[in-house]
Structure formats: structure tokens, C-alpha cells
């Protein structure tokens, strides 16, 4: 949202009917649905006696993180990149876990600076070189860092590839005076979007068993393993009930998107979470039969998954396509009249994490009123 667009939308805050006058395109958060989602996840965690460690890669927003904290059962926050953690820390948030390895000459001074300003910072490792680099840097600085062993539980992106490798890494961490072994992490991203609940549960079982085996082996050697973290929005109920994870790295539940709305997330089939995040786009041209042109293209939506889903402002059965960087095409069902020039069309986002990363602000609405505009402090290709 450029400064002029932001200024216009800020003038609408608190005005009844202001949501219909938004400068578009705009990334819009339905506060009623958002607050329902936070309460529903907190209730699940409370009932299963497990904690939440929401992943900030979904929202990259200090205000969203604060709302998650206020909703309850939150033990800390996950960050995929050091830059995300720095953005949350600048906003006054603490108890941060970096869920991917931090490595490189430029990263260690930043990690040390972040450690100084936080009461609780933890990182993960999957390689002995990472352990050695962290130990040297923190020993030289006279500080002690909490470290978790990242375990490859099937995604093959990061993680110790075997139980033996995980145990060897844990021993190395425990042997370093500047490091504290804090537990293990196992995030099975590859199973989170399995649509069928039973199929997803079957895939989640071996992941939990693998982590339980490593946890028990560590304890048998007298090594501490207070944290077993992982899971996600897709497997949150399954993993909460399993008793292995101490906390769940849930993220997309707060907003939801087309990908997750196509998944059954509760054993009873109920829609536990509501779609809260959408892009609102305006009709710019309607000079052709069968479609109209809008002002939201590939610079407004993630393109790594399904297409946006039309949920308002258009005839039932309308679909959305990209028509370039800045423009979209609303495809109309045969025989229907398109929305008028200037009409706002509402589209659920296809994949929330990379969609949010394209925007500077969330326009927060409640009913037809713009209630607030929240900055997305950690957006962009943060290092």
C-alpha cells in the first residue's frame, strides 16, 4: 500500500460504510473471523494441555503476534528468518525461536545483538559446523544460547537425517559451555495440506513416533529435552492429542486461505477456523463479454498454489485469473451480467504466507467499518 493509498484508507477508519470505499487493491482482515480463529486454536491447546508457538512467517506482524499472545496458551513465537525475529523484537516481543539454521559471517553478530535484547532466544541446528560456529561466537561474547536439534521428519529441507545424527548433534551441543540443549524440532510441512483427515493422521503418526524415539534416547543418556516442537495448522489437532509435542508451530489458522479451507482440520469434520484474509479489488473495465478486468494481479496474490477464490461482489460461480502484474480478470458464468464499473470484488487469498509478504499493511474491518490498519513489519525478502 503506497503512502497515498494508506492515507486514504486511514481516513476511513471508524467511518460506518468505510469498507466499501477502500482504495484498492487492499489486503483486508476480517477481525470477527480472525478473533474466532485465535480463540478456537487457544481452546484446542488448552483442552489438550499443549502450548502454542505461532509461526510469524504467516503474518510478519507485531500486532497480530500480540493478539495471538492475548488469546492465550502461547509460549513464544517462531520465525523462519533472522529478519523476522528482529522485526518482532523491535516491536517488543520476546521468547523467539528461529526455526531454520542461522549460519554465515554476517548473521552471527546480528544473532548476538538479538540475544542481548531478548529474555529468551533459541535457534535450531542440523549440522556440526553450525554448532561449532555458534559455540565460538557465543563463548567469545560471554553469553549462552539455547539450541534445539532440527530433525528431518520427511520434508528433506533441513534436519538431522537419522536418529543417530540427531543424538550426535545433541551431544555436541550439550558439551559446549556456551550452548544449552533445549530440545528438538520436527516440522512436517509436507503433510500439512493433505485434504483428508484420516490420511493426514496416518502420515503424522510416524513423525511423532520418530520425535518420541529421539526424545526418549536423549533422556536415557541424561540429556535434557524440555521442548519437542513442530506440527502446524494442518496437523494441530492430531499432534495435540498425540502427547509428544510440547508446543505447536501453528501459523495459517489465524488467517486461513484457499489451501487450508480445502482441508478437513477437525476429526468431526467441523469447520474449526473461518476465512479471515482476503484481497479486495475493484472493477476497472467491463468492455468485453464474459469477463471484467480488476486492479489486482500477480503482485497482490501468491502464485505458488491455487487461484484466489471469489467470495463476494460477483455473480455466483465467478472465478478469478491473473491478467498481468497489476491486473486480474473476473471470469463470469455464461449468461450473467458482470459487476458494475468501480464495484469491489472480494477474493480469498490462495496461500496466506507469501501473499501477506507482498503487502505493507493489513486493513482490518469489522462488518462494514474499517477498524484499524496494522503494519506488516517483517515483510519482504528478509535475510
Biggest sheet descriptor: 9 strands, mixed
Share of β-strand residues: 15-25%
User: How many separate domains?
Assistant: 2
SSE ordering? HEHEHEHEHEHEHEHEHEHEEEEEEHEE
Query: Please, how many helices?
Result: 11
Report the principal-axis shape. Answer: globular
Distance between the termini: 22 Å
> CATH homologous superfamily of the largest domain?
Alanine racemase
Class inferred from helices and paired strands: alpha/beta
Question: What would CATH call the class of the largest domain?
Answer: Alpha Beta
Radius of gyration, in angstroms, nearest whole number: 22 Å
Q: What average pLDDT do the residues reach? A: 97
Report on the structure:
With about 375 residues, this protein is of the alpha/beta class. It folds into two domains: about 5-30 and about 275-375, D-serine dehydratase-like domain (Lyase, Ornithine Decarboxylase, Chain A, domain 1), CATH 2.40.37; about 30-260, TIM Barrel. The protein is built from eleven helices and 17 strands. The strands form two sheets. Strands 1, 10, 11, 12, 13, 14, 15, 16 and 17 form a nine-stranded mixed beta sheet that branches. α4 packs parallel to α5 (about 105-115) and α7 crosses α8.
